[in-house]
Amino acid sequence: MPRHRQNHCYAPGCQTGYVFVKGAPKISLFGVPKDQARRKVWENSLHRADKPLDDTSAVCELHFEPGSVNKDYVHMIQGQGVRIRCG
Fold first, then answer.
1. What is the pTM of this model?
2. HSE, side-chain direction, 13 A CA sphere, residue 58
3. DSSP class of residue 68?
4. Is 80 helix (H, G, I), strand (E, B) or coil?
5. What counts of helices (H) and strands (E) characterise the chain?
6. Helices (H), the chain
């Protein structure tokens, strides 16, 4: 039976996904890259020796540079870029 991606953050000390706070902004989780080179960068950046990074691990958006997570879809309508919020 295939295992599903975790619904909490793998980063050490992060509480995303463990605690539900009503009204808090939604925080996205990203699955581990399949590309081995990119996956190695994640492993080296997360510094976690107690638990290996596996295919079910996920990292929340709080651990990425602010500009690297797309929060909007951009559609071109009559030559104008129109932003539509994701989710």
1. 0.72
2. 19
3. G
4. strand
5. 1, 4
6. 36-46
Does 84 have pLDDT greater than 80? Answer: no
The residue whose two tokens read 């691990």 is 57
Fill in the amino acid letter for 79. G
Structure tokens at 62: 């709080």
Gap between the Cα atoms of 38 and 9, Å rounded: 18
- Could you list the residue range(s) of the whole structural domain that residue 64 is in? 1-87
Task: Answer yes or no: are the C-beta atoms of 58 and 5 closer than 8 Å.
Answer: yes
pLDDT, tens digit (0-9, with 9 covering 90-100), for 17-30 = 887 778 888 888 99
Query: Which amino acid, 7?
Result: N
Q: Taking the CB of residue 10, how many other CB atoms lie within 10 A of it?
A: 22
Tally the domains of the chain: 1
